[in-house]
Amino acid sequence: MKTLLWGALPYIAFVLLVAGTIWRYRYDKFGWTTRSSQVYESKLLNIASPMFHYGILFVLVGHLAGLFLPESWTDKVGVSEHTYHLFSLYGGTAAGALLVLGILLLLYRRRTNTPVFRATTANDKLMYLVLFAAIVLGMVAKLMHTSGDGYNYRDSIAPWARSLFTLRPDIDAMTGVPLMYEIHAVVGMVLFALVPFTRLIHMFSAPLQYLFRPYVVYRARDPERIGARPERRGWERTRS
């Protein structure tokens, strides 16, 4: 079971993520979308959607820093384990709470708005369930180890996560990891495997080109020239 969970499942999830994304791009380009329902309701969406997206962005950055920033690096800059634990606890809890609240508002909107609910697919329901479970389990795991320096996952889970990139997973590093952290990790890998087959696929098509496109210049109208110009006789010279 240890080999399956910590040695095989990460690569299975990665293969499904990559292969599913390629398949979706080749055969379902028209379905590669958030399937936005803003046309049905926008007031609540304008509140819930930013909460959800900012929350998941903060959570993702926190996970990347915690798993792939070695403890020796933070020690060199003078950040003690206790300081790191407090930052992770309060910052992670705040980001998780923002994300959970955003998901709950989106679920409430989806369930109470009839057109939005009718546009909900089975994949949407599965995605919300797994995503919500992953976030809540992570918060519960963190809050169960708040005393002292908490559980130092950078001595166990983080080395295991980094070892996956060497194709030599350190399965023994997961020995002794609290059960709630293990469940959170498994659900997280399942979530990654589901990404290509749900609306979460739109994360790979963020409009980053908007950051680099030229400015759109708007010029004020001359108040004396507002309205249709009077017709002129004859040919007019065109401008290139």
Overview of the molecule:
- The chain is mainly α.
- It contains 8 helices and no strands.
- The protein has helices at residues 2-27, 45-68, 71-76, 81-112, 114-118, 122-143, 157-163, 179-194.
- The mean pLDDT is 86.
Can I get a quick summary?
This protein has 240 residues and is an all-alpha fold. It has eight helices and no strands.
Task: Give me the secondary-structure topology.
Blueprint: H1 2-27, H2 45-68, H3 71-76, H4 81-112, H5 114-118, H6 122-143, H7 157-163, H8 179-194
Helix pairs in contact: 1-8, 2-4, 4-6, 6-8
* Stretches with pLDDT under 50, minimum 5 residues: none
Gyration radius over CA = 25 Å
* Proportion of residues in extended strands: under 5%
Q: Enumerate how many helices there are, as a single number.
A: 8
> Shape from CA axes?
elongated
Order of helices and strands: HHHHHHHH
Largest sheet: none
Class by SSE composition: mainly alpha
Helical coverage, percent range: 55-70%
Q: Gap between N and C termini, in Å? A: 71 Å
Average pLDDT confidence is 86
Tell me the number of strands. Answer: 0
